[in-house]
Specification:
Layout: E1 3-6, E2 12-15, E3 18-25, H1 33-41, H2 43-49, E4 54-59, E5 66-71, E6 76-80, H3 86-98
Parallel strand pairs: 3-4
Antiparallel strand pairs: 1-2, 3-5, 5-6
């Protein structure tokens, strides 16, 4: 669900909802090997190809690696990337870049009302007389 800024012709432009990405890693931890390799090889190209996203690299010694994504709506998402390879980390970053930051909720009913009725939902056949032959 990407936000668009409306134009008079009905078209809009895309506004990336991902505001900031923080890559947390441990300098000596074995579970951070993939993220350290990603930082050495791919983080600059990711930052250049996504100038609208601020990319921070932060060292957290003694902790497992993680990605912290902050969105424009104020929500944040933390992804644990322990023992992941470079390609998996790149896929996670692309996925986070494409998301809106809105928490996904299951829709329980196809309708909503503030004043629920004990009679049930209305249909065109609710008060229709039955056919008698």
């Amino acid at each position: 669900m990407a936000a668009t800024i409306g134009l008079p012709n009905g078209m809009g432009r895309y506004v990336c909802q991902l505001q900031r990405v923080t890559l947390n890693y441990c300098r000596a931890g074995g579970s951070s090997r993939g993220l350290r390799d990603f930082i050495d090889q791919n983080v600059v190209s990711f930052a250049k190809s996504n100038p609208q996203v601020a990319v921070y690299v932060r060292e957290r010694n003694g902790k497992h690696p993680r990605i912290v994504a902050n969105y424009l709506n104020g929500n944040s998402k933390i992804i644990d990337i322990k023992n992941m390879e470079i390609e998996d980390i790149r896929k996670w970053l692309e996925r986070l870049r494409g998301e809106s930051g809105v928490k996904i909720e299951k829709i329980r009913k196809p309708w909503h009302t503030d004043n629920p009725s004990i009679q049930g939902t209305w249909t065109p056949f609710t008060n229709k007389p039955s056919l008698k032959m």
